[in-house]
Design brief:
It is a single chain. The protein has 312 residues and is mostly helical. Helices cover 57% and strands 0% of the residues. The protein contains 13 helices and no strands.
Length: 312
């Protein structure tokens, strides 16, 4: 039976009221003007995403949630977590872009070489599903053909579509993911997944979904340490994932690590050095969040003298 809905009664509050609310929940604020500056910068509602892990009832999000925080929680701790998340998004964006380019190029190369006599293999009913072909114009190509490069192609050449190596360059990662899932032959999917060392095509498809969701989260400013993926990650070469672990940032980071290593071992080392750098910065400002970060992200910062590129 659906839960009975109740009227929403909360109203907008001033910065003074927001500071008072934070103090009432137990947040230590020593500089009220600085606190107002923080609230003006990021917003009271957004700040709440990063205040949540400091709450006594964390990670509860239902009716049992209480907003009172643990003793000695400072607003500076909350802000440090916010900037850690921001820094982590900036770091991951670089490597997620590298993954996206590598996956797109692999699909273009492997399938274009196999179907060398059909530059438009991506709308060939012997290669992809009829459903993909029927939806492709409105789902992707109507936008793609507005690009100047594609417009110039159509001014010079006949045909409904530009070749795969032009068209797919302007497809989103989501478009590429759907195309991969729409390939009729499993052996065609394996041409792509085997390039990244994952023989199970359904598992590789879940990696694509994880990368897409994580990239969207980075692009739209979602919290990462508490990220919950809509699509679960299948166990495979990137790791063994069970139950709710299939949907967490920790496991998504395992997938990113795995894919980057298959692209370039040196880039994977660079990525972890960047991750460790922003994590150390967080701990220097808020040492008390180490346990939270280790549990929620799997990031274990090496001790002095350890291999600086060691990964979880």
């Amino acid at each position: 039976m659906p839960r009975r809905k109740i009227p929403y009664t909360k109203r907008a509050t001033t910065y003074d009221e927001q500071v008072a609310n934070l103090r009432r929940h137990g947040v230590i604020i020593s500089d009220e003007n600085k606190a107002k500056e923080i609230l003006a910068d990021m917003g009271y509602y957004r700040l709440g995403f990063y205040l949540h892990p400091f709450e006594i009832t964390y990670p509860c999000v239902d009716s049992g949630r209480r907003h009172n925080v643990r003793p000695d929680t400072r607003i500076e701790d909350v802000v440090a977590l916010y900037y850690f998340d921001l820094d982590m998004r900036n770091v991951l964006n670089r490597y997620l872009s590298r993954i996206e380019v590598a996956i797109r190029n692999t699909v273009i190369y492997e399938l274009s070489i196999k179907y060398v006599n059909d530059p438009n293999w991506f709308v060939n009913p012997n290669v992809v599903t009829a459903d993909f072909i029927s939806k492709f114009p409105t789902a992707a190509y109507n936008s793609i053909k507005k690009n100047e490069v594609i417009r110039r192609h159509h001014k010079k050449y006949a045909g409904a579509y530009a070749p795969a190596w032009k068209t797919m360059e302007y497809m989103t990662l989501g478009n590429v993911e759907i195309l991969y899932a729409s390939l009729l032959l499993d052996k065609d999917k394996k041409l792509v997944s085997n390039r990244f060392g994952e023989p199970a095509t359904a598992t590789f498809k879940s990696y694509l979904s994880a990368v897409r969701e994580l990239r969207n989260a980075c692009a739209h400013g979602k919290t990462l340490f508490d990220l919950n993926l809509f699509t679960g990650i299948r166990s495979g070469k990137a790791g063994t994932f069970q139950g709710n672990q299939r949907h967490t940032f920790r496991e998504a980071l395992c997938v990113v690590d795995y894919l980057v290593k298959n692209i370039s071992a040196n880039r994977a080392k660079d990525m972890w050095n960047d991750i460790f750098r922003v994590t150390r910065l967080l701990y220097s400002k808020s040492p008390g969040v180490r346990q939270l970060i280790e549990q929620r992200t799997g990031i274990i910062v090496p001790q002095e003298g350890d291999n600086p590129s060691k990964t979880p």
